[in-house]
Amino acid sequence: MSSTDQLSASDDADYTSNPHLSKYPRHTIAEGGRIKVGVLGATGTVGQRFITLLAVHPWFTIHVLGASSRSANQTYAKAVRWKQTTPIPTSVREMIVQECLPEHFTQCAIVFSGLDAEVAGDIESAFRAADLAIFSNAKNFRRDAHVPLIVPLVNPHHFSIIAQQRSIHSPPLKKGFIVTNANCSTTGFVIPIAALEKAFGPIESLLVTTMQAISGAGYPGVASLDILDNVIPYIGGEEEKIEWETLKILGGVVEGDDGLKTFDMHSRHPLRVSASCNRVPVIDGHTECVSLRFAKRPPPSPQQVREALASFTPDAQALGCPSAPRHAITVHEEPDRPQPRLDRYYQDGAGVSVGRVRQCRVLDVKFVVLSNNVSIGAATSSIINAEIAVLKGVVQS
What's the domain of life for this entry (predicted)? Predict the structure, then answer.
């Protein structure tokens, strides 16, 4: 057994006394008393963001990095084209990159996937079949009837379907599952929508117009001659994703006629969503203009909406997730906020900012949302999802 698989006396004390660690077998606890995790797609932009966040995480420690066969067997520093604003963490610089094969990740309690959708489906399926817990940023399983699509500040109760996902797998699984986080543009505005539904009841219709940062397209992304001095009023498949994902996230989990749990897609109170998506020359930070109509009449005033947004406390905060923001929603009173350049890195991008809350003359209320698409819109969501899963006992030893 290598030194990284052993526990010192002080680590052993942490292991036996820490309720987040003591349920795991020792081979999943690293030296230093933390939970071993792996990252798939580690050389990509989402994978890099995972690594940046996990390198300083208080519970998790990076044990394995996975990438394509082109990158495998090289040190991470040589394999990656690093695009983050901070240096490559020293803890992973000399780590040897592995192919994305389950056998390299067997000692990991959690595996984060930053894989591109073109390859994520088969790889994530293989990892789940190997009884590994996968937290994915890819779109491949978002529409799966047994896979929860979780925005951690909104619907962690959807973890309740994991037991069914395991039981219907052939063969049934003890520990393995797949959880996905939402599209980055959906994540930003669905957080304030959830807060308003919690405070004032169902919303029956909403319009959202997005101004999405170029980092949302990955690397190398949109050609400079296309995006500079320009706005592109089309992002393939994006509007359909928003309109569908919103219903799954905000809906409930119910038991169907066949005895299986299913997502009700907000069917108890039908919600109409219309999205228009645009790519704009901003590096990070999606800005979204939202107008909505409440089912309950009379609707709340703009001031009541501001107060409800500012006071929203999601389960991730109440549970004590270390990556959860102090304020899920920051409400700005200034007439020209939020702005990507000023507000996208507040709380390290783990919350959202809302401003310009005002009456809508067509619907009821309208406002502007800003979210950091590479943080709460991507890796940060997966990490908070994993923290919730640890605290709720969904991730099992």
Answer: Eukaryota
